[in-house]
Structures are given as C-alpha cells and as structure tokens.
Design goal:
The chain is α+β, with helices and mostly antiparallel strands. The longest helix is centred in the last third of the chain and has 16 residues.
Length: 383
Amino acid sequence: ADSLVWTPTGITKLDIPQRTFAAGMVDGQVVFTTSEPWGAVPSGAIASAPLAAVVSGRFTPEVILAPGPRQSIEQTADTKNRLVVVVNDNVRGRAMVFTHAAKGWTSTPVALPDNASVGVADAGDRNDLAFLTVTGFLDPTSLWSLDAATAATKRVRTLPARFDATGLVVEQFEAPSTDGTKVPYFIVHRRGIKLDGSTPTIMTAYGGFEISMTPSYSGSTGKLWLERGGAYVLANIRGGGEFGPKWHDAGRKTKRQVIYDDFAGVAKDLFARKLTSPQKLGIYGGSNGGLLMGVEFNQHPELWKAVTIQVPLLDMIRYEDIAAGASWVDEYGSVKNPDERAFLQTISPYQNLKRGVAYPEPYIWTTTKDDRVGPQHARKFAA
C-alpha cells in the first residue's frame, strides 16, 4: 500500500519502501521504522527526516539507530522532546533515549534490570514522562517511570509473585543449527541440577511472523513446573523477530526448513549439555507454533517424549482455504506457486504422517472460537 501525507495543499505520495512506516515525530523530525533497506538506511533500522522535507514526498533519511547483527528494534515512542527506543540485545531488553539537535541524534542508555523483556507502556507529547514495563522469567512485571529528559527511572509498582523463585536460575546458551547458525535459547531451572539428563524439561518456540519470544513471567509454569524441579526452555529460532527482519526473512516461504532445524538443534544442544534427555523432554506450541510442533512430531519423533499441539495449522496444502489462511501467503507461500507448493508438501504435518512410526505421545487441542486458525487442521490430524 502507498504511504501518503496530507497537507493544506493536497495529498502527496511518499517515495519510501513498502515496509517502511512513520512512527512518530520529535523536534520537527518524522521518525520512520523500516523492515527493508532504504538507501543508506539498513533493514531493521529507525531513521528520520525533517517534516518540511517529508511533505515534498522525496527526501533523504538520516539513520537514528541501526541495530547490530544480534539486535532488533522492538518499539519506539515519542515524548514532547525525546524518542524512547526499546531494543532487544541478544534477546535481552534494553531502553535508550534519543535527543535531536543541530548535529543530529545522540543517545542515552536507560538503567533497568537485566535479562528481562522491556516495553513502553505509555508516553505522551505534552511532557517527557514515559512509563516502561520490565518482565523476567523469575520476576513478575514491574512498572517504571522514565524521565526521558534525563533518562532517570523509578520503579512504580510490581505485580505480586505467583511462585517461589528461590533457588531458580536463568541461563542463556546458543545451539548450532544445520547451517552453522547460532540459535540462542533460555533455560530456567533449579540451581545445582544434576547434569545427567534426568531433569524433566518442557520447551517451546514460535518461529514466525517476525514475532520475538522474549523473557516472560508465567505463574502457572512456575508453580506447577519449576517449583517441582522441572526445567523450562524458550528457543529463539529463526522466523521470529529476535534479530530483526533478516532473522524473520531467513525462515519465510520455501526457506522455512531452517526454523524446524533450529528447534531440533536446540534440543540436541540440551542433550549434549546433559541438561535433559529425549525421555525427559516435552515440547509445546500454538497457532504457528502448533505448526512447528506438527513438523517436529513428524521430522524428529526420536527427540521428544511428548508433544502438545495447540490450535495448530497442520494441513499446509489446504491452509489457504481454511479460516484466515489466505492472509498468510506472505509468510508460508502459496500452493498456487509450484515451487512453494512442492516445499509445503515436504513439511505439511498432515500429509507427512506415516504408519509404523514410533511417534511421541501427542496432545492435540483446538477451538471453534479462534477466528484465524480453523479447527479442521487439528481434527484431521488427530483422526
């Protein structure tokens, strides 16, 4: 779709890439995010241009922040005089405040807890006050005030803890995938566990639509699993947005096999570190993550003891005709394209079930109330 600017003299079409969007304005500078290269602005960066130039339709953007290879820009918000930016740095949340002056943009880091997810809860254009949220695997969400003029923060309130995190630790490792790519993952477990493969472990991931899977707090997982000695693993596989558009694009359409290889690679790394074993590892995922579970169920039945497949896509040959499937062609490809159909045939869980295979224990569930993923996928696969 075209990007347009309305002025008193009429409408002007902006000469910007399709995946570039205006995100705010600070000090007369229009701020843009882009998921594809834009002149000297790399994919995944944020940039700006003077409003006076933007209204002309053609202008040269200035880079505000270009993330590194293990970073991604998660969120931007503008206050009266500042730009607040949240970045994932190796899947750890960071916040920065940017100030515009005659010589360009300068940044100031914001002091917040480490090893957590960070988000902007609120920001307004009447002052330089903003509110941030901070969440960790072992720390419930807390609300922080931010004076963007000075980058000073203050904890305002924290949600109550829902489980006892005493003695629990969070570690981050990297696993090699089939093409050598290092895939990060988090593991939460009790301190001092025996490295003999005996720890019951559950693992999840998503791997699609440039959605980042970052540290989150789950009272039920903590109370029912971690407190009882289990371990929890979050895999940051390709297809997501953890490292920006390139991490996502690496697993789109006919390149999706690397997503499934990444997930299996994390499991094998867990085994190599003796953190768990196939007889002690269960996996789960929903929606696009349910498709991930279906593929792993088929391609690597030897790696899992049990697989929970939640509200999944499983018939990838007919997915375009089920519920909102046609809207996901940019992610999965289309059976109308011969090359994409041939690839989908190789990964589609429904089409690749085989008799005589020692599959892990499945638990498949769906709903008739999801307006995106139809229940037909799960029903056919279970039948």
